Amino acid sequence: MSQEGVLTGTRAMLREEPKKRSAGKRAWRMLRRGRLGLAGCIILLGVIVAAIGAPWLAPHDPADQDLRARLTCPAYTSCPRFGVAGQTVHGSTNHLLGTDNLGRDIFSRILYGARISLIVGLTAVALGGGIGTVIGLIAGYYGGAADSVISRIADVQLAFPFLLLAILISIVVGQGLRNVIFILSIGAWVPFARVVRGSTLSAKNYEYVTAARTIGARAPSILFRHILPNVITPAIVIATFAVAGTIIAEAGLSFLGLGAGGNQPTWGSMLADGRAYVSTAWWLATFPGVAIMLTVLSINLIGDWLRDILDPRLRNTG
């Protein structure tokens, strides 16, 4: 290699070194600023592990009933003996979080309930978000009558309380896991469509889109190869918050008796079972409520973290 080539390579390496250092500093700054997001990831990872490993982690079958052990208080605690005034009983290590009014193990039911919540939350948002993203791309790119019709449909749905709509639809189609996912996906598409539509209205006028259109690229290619990668960032952030909202909506439907049904343990149905025993058996409603709170909180923390990382206006500050 000639001396000139060596000098050229050295200059290139020197030019790249500051970029590497600046990228490392930016990553470290994001990590320090995202401690809450990291905590959310740890909590959510624990929920996912509990859901996947429920068959091995659960000490009991969640549907097994033992009326002799009904309303057993959590381990290492004591509570009044039901039906006998002035006597107390201690919890059993065989039931770490106690049992419900039918003698079913609360800990096992919470583990299996995490499966239902995560499946419904992720699947409904994936379906609704995918449909809403495609609809938003079409409305923003083509405009005209398609944009007007889609926008009016979205406005009508936003004007109608979604939980009431979900209750009405669930009464018609009945209970079942698939029906719950279908119902909740109906309400998930609107935020994605509106945000993606607004981003597409700006992105379709960019120079690279105009260049692709000039060389004869077809509309599907322009939408999914050139526009979608540049408008997907806000949709990802919306998806994280939508998963949390969907988990709460599923718990609300289960609380009203319109959830998965089929004797499947869900956090919402556990709350419904415990509302009659709030003053006497606090653990029936407390532990499912804590599970919902921690799961939703962790997802919201991750959503805030992703927003800080993916939004260039926030990323360039600090």
Write a short abstract of this structure.
The chain contains 12 helices and 2 strands, in the order αααββααααααααα. The protein has 318 residues and is mainly α.
Spatially, the strands of the biggest sheet line up as 1-2
CATH architecture label name of the domain at 110-315: Orthogonal Bundle
The CATH topology name of the domain at 110-315 reads MetI-like fold
CATH class of the domain at 110-315: Mainly Alpha
> What is the count of β-strands?
2
Q: How do the SSEs run, as a string of H and E?
A: HHHEEHHHHHHHHH
CATH homology-level superfamily of the domain at 110-315: MetI-like
**First-residue to last-residue Cα separation:** 44 Å
**Strand residues, percent:** under 5%
- Sheet with the most strands? 2 strands, antiparallel
Structural class comes to: mainly alpha
Ranges where pLDDT stays below 50 over 5 or more residues in a row are 5-24
Shape: elongated
